[in-house]
Each structure stands twice: as C-alpha cells, then as structure tokens.
Amino acid sequence: VFTSFGTFLHGDPRLLGQTSLWMFPIYGMAALIDPIYEKIKTPRKIGAVMKWDDFYTDSPTVFQKDGIFYMYFIAISKDCSVSGYETHLAKSCDLINWEYIGPVFRRNNEKNWDSKQCAGYAAFINTDFDGNYELQKVNGRYYISYLAGNSDGYEPDPLYMGLAKSEDPINPDGFERLPEPILRPDDSDCRKEENKTLYKSFLFEDTLKVSGYKYVNVYNAKDGNDTERIFLAVSNDGENWERYGDRPIIDLSETDPDNKICGDPQIIRIDDIYVMFFFRYIPDKSAFNTFACSRDLINWNIWRGKPLVQSEYEWENSLAHKTSFVRINGVNYHFYCACRNDLNERFIALATSEE
Predict the structure, then answer these.
(1) Strand 286-294 vs strand 273-282: parallel, antiparallel, or unpaired?
(2) Which end of the chain is more exposed for a tag (fewer CB within 10 A), N or C?
(3) Has this prediction a pTM greater than 0.90?
(4) What are phi and psi of 35, to 5 degrees?
(5) Contact by Cβ (8 Å): 49, 348
(6) What is the pLDDT of residues 56-89, one digit of tens each?
C-alpha cells in the first residue's frame, strides 16, 4: 500500500489487506482538490478578534451552542520564562465581536503532570462542512482535550495529551480533568517520530468509521530532531486511546526537507471526503495554513496551491497559522493565529469567504 507521498505503509495489520480502499485516494482525489479549495477558501481578512496587551492569544477552537458561538483559546504571558499556557473562553453572536467569559484551565503549583501547561481545544465538534459546528456529547458529557506539561516556559518538553469533561461546556469552572494523560511521548506504542512531545489534538466522532473505530484523534507531535508530523489515534469510548498505524499520516519532511512543522490539524467532512486543515512552518520563510484531502484518513492528497491563510499585511508580518474553521449560513470563517514581530504581538485573527 502506498501513501500519497509514494512511501510504503507497513506494519499495522488493520491497514494491510485492504489495498483497494487505502489506495483509492491516490487515483480519485487529485481531480477533487481544486473544487474543495474553492469551497473552503477565505480571501477576506477581517483582522484581530482576540488580542491582549500583555499576553499572546493563540490556538482558537470555535463552536456553536444554542445559537451562540463560543471560542476556547489559549494565552501565555509575554514573559514566557515564568509562564505557560492557560485556557480561556469567549462568546459571540456574530463570530466577529467577542466577549470574554473567563478562564477554563489555570496553572497551579501542585507539581502534577499538567500543572504548568494546560492548553485546551474543544473536542467532538460536529465536522459536517454545512453542519452546525456544535459540540457533541460523548458518554453524556462534553470534552476538552489539552496540551499538558509540568514546566514553565514556551512549550517546554515533554508535553502530554490530557482530557477533561463537563456537563456544561460553557461553564468555565465545570471541567474535571482525567487523572492521567490519554497519550504520552513515552508510551509503549509511541512511534519514533513522536517520542519527544505531543502538541495539539483534534478529537472527533467518525460516523463513517473508516478506521473501524467510533472516535478518531488527529494530532501533531515532535521527534528528537524537533520535526513535527501529524498522527492518528483511535478509540471506541472517547477516553481510552490507542495509536493507529506505525507512521505519520502527514510527513512533509519526506518530500520537502526544509519543512519543519506540520501542525494543529482540524478535520471537516464534505460528503465522504475528509478535509484536514493544518499549518506548515518553513524556518526563515513562513508559517501558513493549508489543507489535505482523504477518503480513508490514511492517504492524503496535499494542496500545493495558494495557502488558505498566509501573512499578507503589516499587522501579521511574521506568521499566519493554526486553523479553526466553521461555516455558518454559507459563509466560511477561518480563525487563525497572527504574529507581528516588530511589536511582539501574537493574537487571534479572522478571514472569511465573503469579499
């Protein structure tokens, strides 16, 4: 079986013996990726929607509940050496003007595995392209997955993957963290390309069950050479996770050696096509948001055209990366993290499909 990169996918018996399914995207996806770009593009830049003077705001996940839009996002003090990621909540009626509600996860001094870093992302959002992007209950609860660590600083190694649950996802004080990580970089089934740190995770219910599992976790992780790739894990109960396959599903270091990071994936589905938003980082050049398409979550056809979001203006003159995409009433909203180096700014910005 060959991936879209032309490399051999081996080792996991769940992926072998199904050649006709796994090979299909190689031959059937290329003709579809151009029209998908037209469906998801967002050429109109709105600008900053969540920006704090003394903190970097980053990594939004936007969802809808009861007709109101909410955003989990993370923040870190600009003095990163004595700080770490925390998670916050905001709400909006129009996806442009946002009202801050309060903190969801705060750092503490308990010296646990997740005491100093707790960057949360909404889990189990409806992934239908023309759906409602509402949070879905699993086990009668709502969930947040989170990047976790017990050291101060900006993304200090190692980082783990945590999970928390609540009866009310918009009550910032209502989440109960699971006592142990759901995935670690030193797990026995950890792949060699993810043995240093785990980063952002996107958990979703896969109603097509192409992996044979009910729930899928797509996430980026780093190896000893500080190269980041995108991987899969699977679950049937939403809390107990195992890795799927023995290699990354997105690894641009194979074809583009200068590409250092493929990160922060999000999945939506257009009919039977999975669309993965993710960002690429090429040192000394840029970080930008792009996408890939698949019918099986294993083989991906990567868009090589104009980025979905990239640095274009002075207010985002360094980086434009990390996607949270929703489509409401036929309009695409692409939230992302914008960086301006000369003013030491990192904030959440928005691009839309309406020009």
Answers:
(1) antiparallel
(2) C
(3) yes
(4) -65, -30
(5) yes
(6) 999 999 999 999 999 999 999 999 989 999 999 9
Up-side HSE of residue 334: CA atoms within 13 Å toward CB?
29
How many CA atoms does the CB half-sphere of 135 hold within 13 Å?
28
Q: Measured in whole angstroms, how far is the alpha carbon of residue 149 from the centre of its chain?
A: 18
- β-partners of residue 129 are none
The one-letter amino acid at 334 = H
Radius of gyration of the chain (CA): 19
Low-confidence ranges of the chain (pLDDT < 70): 1-28, 355
Label residue 192 exposed, middle or buried (CB < 10 Å: 0-12, 13-18, 19+): exposed
Token pair 């679950």: residue: 235
Cα separation of 202 and 124, whole Å?
8
CA distance 73 to 90: 8
**What are the pLDDT digits (tens) for 294-330?**
999 999 999 999 999 999 999 999 999 999 999 999 9
**Residue 342: both structure tokens together:** 């000369």
Burial of 40 (0-12, 13-18, 19+ CB in 10 A): buried
Whether the Cβ atoms of residue 85 and residue 118 lie closer than 8 Å to each other:
yes
Whole-angstrom Cα distance, residue 150 to residue 191?
Answer: 23
Using alpha carbons, select from 38, 63, 54, 194 the residue that is nearest to residue 120: 63
Q: Are strands 273-282 and 261-270 parallel, antiparallel or unpaired?
A: antiparallel
**Burial of residue 214, with CB atoms counted within 10 A of its CB: 0-12 exposed, 13-18 middle, 19 or more buried:** middle
User: DSSP E strands: which ranges in the chain?
Assistant: 44-50, 55-65, 68-77, 86-92, 99-105, 117-122, 142-149, 160-166, 176-177, 197-205, 215-222, 228-235, 242-243, 261-270, 273-282, 286-294, 301-302, 319-328, 331-340, 345-352
